[in-house]
Amino acid sequence: MNFAQTDRLSVAQPLHAFIEREALPGTGISAAAFWSGLADLVRDFGQRNRQLLEVRDALQSRIDVYHRHRAAESLKISEYEGFLREIGYLLPEIGDFTIRTSNVDDEIAHIAGPQLVVPLSNARYALNAANARWGSLYDALYGTDAISEDGGATRAGPYNPVRGERVMARGRVLLDMAAPLAQGSHRDALAYSVEGGALFVRLRDGACTGLARPAQFVGYRGDPAAPSALLLRNHNLHIEIKIDRASLVGRDDPAGITDIIVEAATTTIMDLEDSVAAGRCGGQGCHLSQLARLGGRYAHCEV
Fold first, then answer.
1. Is residue 93 located within the same domain as residue 207?
2. Interior CA angle at 276 toward 271 and 279, to 5°?
3. Closest Cα to residue 193, out of 204, 184, 203, 183?
4. Are both 66 and 147 inside the same structural domain?
5. Domain span at residue 140?
6. Coil, strand, or helix at residue 24?
7. C-alpha pair distances (Å), 219 with each of 199, 216, 302
8. For the chain, how many structural domains are there in total?
9. Sign of the CA dihedral 180, 184, 189, 195?
């Protein structure tokens, strides 16, 4: 591979071209300033980074040996966790502490939502991750085993009203948990409307109520007397209630709800390390699934 000499660094030509032709234009940062700053980082942290990579390699080697010696045995979670703690892969839990940071996006600093990590080398993964911030609760419930297929609620073939009814009921449970009404339940809702900037819900018994926490209502779409969508917020994550009484699902719903869209993953981290390795996971040394069963209590994840 050819290298370009830049400041105090030798940079691979493809990377050098990408930085100077595509990444830097429009940022207000000159090429000279960028390469000088990068050279300073390499100088200050290069040795420490090499040491950390050596630690990672040593940990991976011991984990590989562990799995090879037990290839024919079933995994014992408690024993495995003890081994990972012994070698320093899992670290002791520490007490509560506070930390102050600046210039951190709200999605990380103020929203308790999950983050997705995907390999930068796979455009389809990156696109799916970006689209995963918002997802249909109804699709997730209908198409997976989260809803039992007993009693005729099969998911095969065309739309099954029996299964659809169970999906709607589960959706109402989520609404009651995340955005409860001042009285009654979303299960008994016949219509939603907006008056004076507040959400009102008409119930089966003729009562009209609102949200127990009115501030959770943050917006709507369409006619306020018969909105096509309502936006709620819980712990800074949003829930969109879609209403369409003419749709296949909404026509069977007393309130015309055709779907509930939930905000899930709030950020997408695209990198070229852990996620790429995870995408190639599959041999005896793969321990991602076992670590996941430990509740995610691990310092880092390498295969």
1. no
2. 135
3. 203
4. no
5. 134-263
6. coil
7. 9, 9, 43
8. 2
9. negative
Residue 131 burial (10 A CB sphere; 0-12, 13-18, 19+): exposed
pLDDT in tens, the chain (303 residues): 789 998 889 999 999 999 999 999 999 999 999 999 999 999 999 999 999 999 999 999 999 999 999 999 999 999 999 999 999 999 998 999 888 878 888 777 777 777 788 887 888 888 888 888 899 999 999 999 999 999 999 998 899 999 999 999 999 999 999 999 999 999 999 999 999 999 999 999 999 999 999 999 999 999 999 999 999 999 888 999 999 999 999 999 999 999 999 998 778 787 776 544 444 333 333 333 333 333 333 333 332
Q: How far is CA 200 from the centre of its chain?
A: 31
CA 211 – CA 201 distance, rounded (Å): 8
Q: Do 230 and 243 form a contact (C-beta atoms < 8 A)? A: yes
pTM score: 0.61
